[in-house]
UniProtKB/TrEMBL annotation:
Location in or out of the cell: Cell outer membrane
Presence of keyword Transport: yes
Name this polypeptide is given: TolC family protein
Keywords for this protein: Cell outer membrane, Membrane, Signal, Transmembrane, Transmembrane beta strand, Transport
Species of origin: Flavobacterium frigidarium
Cleavable signal peptide: 1-18
Family listed: Belongs to the outer membrane factor (OMF) (TC 1.B.17) family.
Amino acid sequence: MRKLLLITFLTMAVTGHAQEVKTLTLKQAIEYALANKSDAKKAQLKIENSGYQIEEVRSRALPQIAATGSLNYNPILQTSVIDGAGFGQPGTIIQATFGQKWISTAGVSLTQNLFDQAVFTGLKAAKTTREFYIINAQLTEEQVIERVANNYYSVYVKRQNLTVLDSTYNNTVKVKNIIQGQYDNGLAKKIDLDRTLVKISNIKTQRQQVLNAVQLQENALKFYMGMPIETAIEIPVAQFEVTPQAFTENPNTANRTEYLLLKKQQQLLEFQKKAVLAAYYPTLSLSAGYNYIGQGPEMPLGARPSQGVYWSDYSAIGLNLNVPIFTGFSTRSKVRQADVDLRSLEEDLIDTKLSLDLDYANAKTQIENSIVTINNQQSNVKLAQEVLDNTKNNYVQGLTSLTEVLDAENANTEAKNNYTAAVLDYKLAEIQLIKSKGELKTLINN
């Protein structure tokens, strides 16, 4: 018996823990997403990786040192035919075999770029690439914030719809109870009771559909937050107050992250063009090497001169100059391609500016329209509730039909849902307005 009670207690404890609800404000939801969503993490990893790219390019300006070694066996040595005149035997041909059966070498080489325009340009481009990824990370964070905020408000609307249905269900049950009492006393028709029961059944079906929609929307929100899907969440209603917005002139597009990202991309394309132009410049490098070689009929490793194996060293230091003269117009073609890419990006900048200005204008118009709609729907909800209350009273007094009660109930439900939808439209437009100003991160500070 004690074991059974213990198992029951533990099961209840685990179940209670699994059903723990996490209350989320919009700020908390965004902060969680920025810390856990893969998109935000990957953007930070790109910034980290850009540091390694800079190190890679910088390495091309540093000395390159390498150690080499080889061991070769020549089973058949090459025979060279030589004019005997060089050896005091004119008119004869001498066949001479050069080399040894075994050759072993070990050495160290050093190469240092003294001047290479491509290396200098690449280093500047790598630093600009890091700046590009930093801006891209900011844009990614803004995209995460926007998605989380949109889905956050959508969850609220779905839950409000569920609340409205629950209220409608409770009111309809009260009407059913009244009709049930009247029917039991012979004061109401059975068809009225049946119609009310049908209404309750329909509401239950609608509630299940809305409940499914709530679950799907919550799952979407948790996905965009990077939160485990099984986590239960709750959203405070106080987060959805409608506040006036201050409209100013069109915001400065140059401050928008999307525009800044394109400008940084433009810099990268300019460096790309300079890297191509670097092919016109000469390159100068210093090279040095030191080698040790062993040759003989026996394997050189560990062998001595008494065995016919001789060791010697040699070294060389050189200055290498490469001056490009003609590349078949390859460099010129690449430069022209780079010019086309730059002109194409200029068009992207113009189009992006127009798009960002359009976003602001549309968000402003949507907010203005939403405020009007919200005010109208608030009045409509109040009026629909008054109509419903009066119709119920009239029905109890026998002054109206059940049809009018059900119609009033439907109108009241529709009015509340329309109000909720208007609030969602407003909040979504508010997000777009904040985004168009480049101020999405202010949602974290509120």
